[in-house]
Amino acid sequence: MTVGNETVTAKTVKNCFIGKAFQSRTLVAVFEDHNAKMKSLIGKEFEKSTLECYETCLMHVKGCM
What we know:
The chain is mostly helical. It has helices at 10-18, 27-40, 48-64, and strands at 2-3, 6-7.
């Protein structure tokens, strides 16, 4: 059986049930992914200044770690 692009097996159901199904991501990784997606949407959905604000925010987050 498949869901989306993933094959569902007894092991994947078990891992989901016990909480091992999802990979955790760090805040910085999520921020970098978000900023990369925003960069591709400049001029379509976002202005360059909005991306610059998010990049500044990411810089501050990294500085606190």
